[in-house]
Amino acid sequence: MLFDGICNLCNASVRFIIKRDRKNLFYFASLQGVAGQELLRNFDMETDQFNSFVLIEKNKIFTRSEAVLRVLKILGRGWKFLYAFIILPKFIRDGIYNLVSKNRYKWFGKKQECPLPSPEWKAKFLD
Question: Domain coordinates of the chain in residue numbers?
């Protein structure tokens, strides 16, 4: 999973996922980091745009609302029921996603640089 490493909302989302990833399925890299940049290039994605949450699953890439909903589905338990929102047209789902993405720094703030993961979570990060 790739995320904006300086975004407070994105970092909180990563912590949320790690705490609920009971099957240890998710690994993370910031979009700005070496591993994240390499993965973006491997999938022919722009390396200078950090406004999308990216999920790579079985060598297929998912972005924006679809990535978020797939993560919730994979987390299981009650979270998987939120995957039902996939029935909404993509332009509506991504419209909401884009609104939050556009305002995330204003609403949630940002860091000057990507924070280091805690020692117990370090193995979950690719770089």
Answer: 2-124
